[in-house]
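We recall that each integer encodes one residue's backbone shape. We quote one record:
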Amino acid sequence: QTNNDLAENTSVLWLELLFNREDIATNFEKRDKKPDIDGSFTILNNRRFDARLEAQIKTYNLKKSKGQAKYSCDTKFIYYALKNRISCIILFVVDNSTNKAYWKYLSQKFIDSLNLKYEQKEVTIHFNDNEYVSYDNIEECLAIWKSHFNIKNNAIFIEDDNIEKFNEKITQINKYLTNSDLSAFDNKYIVSIQKFIDRYNQLFDGD
């Protein structure tokens, strides 16, 4: 295998080791040449499904990144995330020298902010100060990733970067429904609204 293959495999193994916990199940592929994802990981609660996210795992290049928290990403992966509006997709960039991995959740809002140009091959992803995972903060990261999953799977696809904005929009929708004359709605819409309310309550029970 090439040096690049060795580095990528090492990064996948590092993340698998970090995620070697009772509350996480991983399904990562090594030597994966696909430009989209390297697999997925599932967050568990008492060994039951809580959230599932897809992952692309890359290796941090200190020289190429000039020591900064950034990564030059293939736009094929970005377009994959853009088209896949159901799965939660995270880019992990593992820095094996410091035992941490930068991460970026590819939300619709973030992808739009990249302002990709036609036929653009690469784009630089900048990581915020809190966008890294290590043995020291994995519990915090799991809570954040779970909230992204909950927001993405809220049944009506309101996608914001944080749970506070999401809850604010849900409150606005509830007020609108409360003040609306539901007798004018077709029965199928009433059923859909009830399903959404049930799904919303189910997702946030215990949060």
Notes: The first helix runs from residue 3 to 18. DSSP finds six helices and eight strands in the chain. The mean pLDDT is 84.
